[in-house]
């Protein structure tokens, strides 16, 4: 979980502050000392930490804060605002060429997940009404072209290749002409990386830049490498001039220091974050939402957006009609869990919900939830159509047959039926509520 360690420590600091009715300068100093230590442990750049703590301390010692009825809440608000500002202030969106044809030049070191990110970006653009094409400009790494073709196929986006050509700048130029000629409005150039920044790499990228005149140069960095990612970003920006950062593997970095340092060190915004391996796991980076998550206040906007993407309006209406007629089947039950799964699973949902004790949730085996879904799927698929529609007919002999079919004990089948009955009962209460009290979003769960 991103920022897990930092989030726990900051929430601990604020819990102490909330326990005091009146805050003194000594209280603020003690709190800032702990905040400073928490940020450093999260691998945030030292100078960034120093400036951040100084800004928060200065604003927290104002008379309007210390004399207020809720000084602790005022300090938390200041920290929240400073975190938002530190990460860029506002969501920095992709910009497109006014002439209608846009070129995105993707750059980065080896091992950052650049090629996969090209595919994720293409999928994101496709979902947002664009018509992208990928271009394989990495002529050095073995199987780089093959990998991009596999990625392109997985997101249903064409890939331009020139396998016999060893001039990346020429390939990029031809790709742009081909894409524009065939009616694509975005071309994503996947370039080669190196183990470190060198003159040869930069000269190659400069030549591609001169030939294609990209509308944006996007640097892909690995969040797991911490301050090395930030240093790489600074190096690329100084030598090439980048327009934004895509930070991969943020879901696997519990510290998050790179995300908190990148904008302050490079002056360039983080535009996207990679939050998983699937091709739809590229999210627009929203500083205010991320700050809210770090401080344990959840991220309801992202949760709502994911829910809206996950559920189907027609399915939701049909399900409500079924519930009113008491026709909610085991297949419907499985479909509801499938929609939660498509939102990223329980781990990601919990991460975005406010008021959840993340520390307590750590004790839960989230992998177990995924296993439970797989077991439920196996059990239901081992039933006949009649049994799925009417679980009341599941007597002992039928349950034993299903157990043999799915390879799971009868106790698992009994457990599934209990969960199904509980869910059915709960959803019936919601569908029976007055229309003005019903939450449209719940219809998709």
Number of helices: 21
CATH superfamily of the largest domain: P-loop containing nucleotide triphosphate hydrolases
**Rounded average pLDDT:** 82
The total of beta strands comes to 8
CATH class of the largest domain: Alpha Beta
Considering DSSP H and I runs of 4 or more, what fraction of the residues is helical?
55-70%
| Class derived from helix and strand content | alpha/beta
Strand order of the largest sheet: 3-2-4-1-5-6-7-8
Return the string of H and E elements: HHHHHEHEHEHEHEHEHEEHHHHHHHHHH
- Assign the CATH topology of the largest domain: Rossmann fold
Using the 3D structure, state the CATH architecture of the largest domain: 3-Layer(aba) Sandwich
Low-confidence stretches: 433-445
Question: Cα distance, first to last residue?
Answer: 24 Å
Taken as a percent bin, the fraction of beta residues is 5-15%
Can you put this structure into words, describing what you see?
With 445 residues, this protein is an alpha/beta fold. 57% of the residues lie in helices and 9% in strands. It has 3 domains: 83 residues, SRP54, nucleotide-binding domain (Four Helix Bundle (Hemerythrin (Met), subunit A), Up-down Bundle), CATH 1.20.120; 196 residues, 3-Layer(aba) Sandwich (Rossmann fold), CATH 3.40.50; 142 residues, Signal recognition particle, SRP54 subunit, M-domain (434 Repressor (Amino-terminal Domain), Orthogonal Bundle), CATH 1.10.260. Helix 10 links the parallel strand 5 and strand 6. An 8-stranded mixed β-sheet has the order 3-2-4-1-5-6-7-8, sandwiched between helices. It starts with a helix and ends in a 14-residue tail after the last helix.
């Amino acid at each position: 979980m991103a920022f897990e360690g930092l989030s726990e420590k900051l929430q601990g600091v604020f819990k102490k502050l909330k326990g005091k009715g009146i805050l003194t300068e000594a209280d603020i100093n003690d709190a800032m000392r702990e905040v400073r230590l928490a940020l450093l442990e999260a691998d945030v750049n030292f100078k960034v930490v120093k400036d951040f703590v100084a800004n928060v301390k200065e604003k927290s010692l104002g008379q309007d804060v210390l004399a207020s009825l809720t000084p602790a809440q005022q300090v938390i608000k200041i920290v929240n605002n400073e975190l938002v500002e530190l990460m860029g202030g506002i969501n920095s969106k992709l910009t497109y060429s006014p002439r209608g044809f846009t070129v995105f030049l993707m750059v980065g070191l080896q091992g950052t997940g650049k090629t996969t990110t090209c595919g994720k970006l293409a999928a994101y653009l496709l979902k947002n009404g664009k018509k992208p094409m990928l271009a394989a400009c990495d002529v050095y790494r073995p199987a780089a072209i093959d990998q991009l073709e596999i990625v392109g196929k997985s997101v249903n986006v064409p890939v331009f290749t020139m396998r016999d050509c060893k001039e990346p700048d020429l390939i990029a130029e031809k790709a742009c002409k081909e894409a524009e000629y065939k009616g694509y409005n975005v071309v994503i150039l996947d370039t080669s990386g190196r183990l470190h920044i060198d003159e040869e790499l930069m000269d190659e990228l400069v030549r591609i830049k001169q030939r294609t005149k990209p509308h944006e140069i996007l640097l892909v960095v690995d969040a797991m490498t911490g301050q090395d990612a930030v240093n790489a970003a600074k190096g690329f920006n100084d030598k090439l001039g980048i327009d934004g950062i895509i930070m991969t593997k943020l879901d696997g970095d519990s510290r998050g220091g790179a995300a908190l340092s990148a904008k302050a060190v490079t002056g360039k915004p983080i535009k996207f974050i990679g939050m998983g391996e699937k091709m739809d796991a590229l999210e627009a980076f929203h500083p205010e939402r991320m700050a809210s998550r770090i401080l344990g206040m959840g991220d309801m906007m992202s949760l709502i957006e994911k829910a809206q993407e996950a559920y189907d309006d027609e399915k939701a209406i049909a399900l409500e009609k079924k519930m009113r007629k008491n026709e909610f089947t085991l297949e419907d039950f499985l479909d509801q869990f499938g929609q939660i799964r498509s939102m990223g699973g329980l781990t990601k949902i919990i991460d975005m919900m406010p008021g959840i004790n993340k520390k307590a949730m750590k004790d839960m085996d989230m992998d177990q939830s995924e296993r439970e879904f797989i077991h439920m799927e196996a059990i239901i698929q081992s039933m006949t159509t009649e049994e799925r529609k009417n679980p009341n007919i599941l007597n002992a002999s039928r349950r034993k047959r299903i157990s043999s079919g799915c390879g799971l004990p009868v106790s698992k089948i009994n457990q599934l039926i209990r969960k199904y009955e509980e869910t059915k009962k709960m959803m019936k209460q919601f569908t029976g509520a007055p229309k003005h009290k019903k939450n449209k979003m719940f219809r998709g769960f």
